[in-house]
Amino acid sequence: MKDIDKKIAEALHRSHPEVDLGKDPSLAEELITAFRGRNQFTNAMAFILSLVSLGAFGWSAINFYEAEVVRQQLLWGGVCLYCLTFIAFMKVWFWMEMHSNRVLREIKRLELLISSRE
User: Fold this and answer.
1) Cβ of 113: how many Cβ atoms within 10 Å?
2) What is the C-alpha separation between 19 and 28, in angstroms, rounded?
3) Which are the contacts of 55, defined by CB distance < 8 A and separation ≥ 6?
């Protein structure tokens, strides 16, 4: 039984040697860990798309206020609304990623607790 516990503890330490499982990371550290792991490309693309959407929101907001016809105002207002909705969706995406990383960290803590009991 002790051999399997040692193997679990060593595997956990090998997987994330730089992470101290005894302390909670800050919000910035959690955001950075969202860009690591198996979904790093997807998360990076989502972050880039949210920045592009923020730029599109600014551009469409300027065009909304410069439009003289109500039809154009409705069009640019719709683009603004779509961009804001997309940005909100991306924020929820990152919060879910950070939450899943937090849950995985807690599971690793529990594994370490179980493996430390002899």
Assistant:
1) 10
2) 14
3) none
- pLDDT for 18 equals 52
Angle CA(50)–CA(35)–CA(45) in degrees, nearest 5? 35
Q: Give residue-wise pLDDT tens across range 15-64.
A: 655 555 556 777 778 777 778 878 889 888 999 999 999 999 999 999 99
Classify residue 34 by burial, with Cβ atoms within 10 Å: 0-12, 13-18, 19+.
buried
Residue 72's pLDDT is: 94
Nearest Cα neighbor of 23 from 112, 105, 114, 118 is 105
**What's the CA gap between 109 and 36, in Å, rounded?**
19
The residue extents of the domains of the chain are: 2-116
For 38, other C-beta atoms within 10 Å of its C-beta total 6
